[in-house]
Amino acid sequence: MRLWSVHPSILDRMALVACWREALLAQNVLAGATRGYTRHPQLERFRACDDPLDAVGHYLTALRREADDRGYSFDASRVRRGDAANPGIPVTTGQLAFELAHLRAKVAARDAAWLVQLPDSASPAPTFVETPGDIEPWERGTLAP
Fold first, then answer.
1. Domain boundaries, position 25
2. Alpha helical stretches, state H, 11-51
3. What is the mean pLDDT of residues 133-144?
């Protein structure tokens, strides 16, 4: 599961679609609607919020808005709490840099045209607020080959 912290506008098509699917799964996990992935480390930051379902709802809404901007059709009815307030989840500069490098490696292998438009540094997704620091303690990923 990769719930990107970087702004969805820099995600290529495959990353955006996969993130949507995985965030829907995260929503089901947080709602107690599935038994899989209940201990996934990326869910820690949503669970730390006062209302995890609101937090993931805000995240999904931001992904859907990006999809709409690109002319994709993500089903808004699948978001349980699409009108949730921004939870302002902290994400470190180190995590954003790690994810940008990870995305860059993935995109290099699948979409050279998208690679050239990736920024030198990443802004956070609307659900997150950038804070100083290293890679997040919950990060278990490695850079894509």
1. 8-131
2. 13-30, 44-47
3. 84
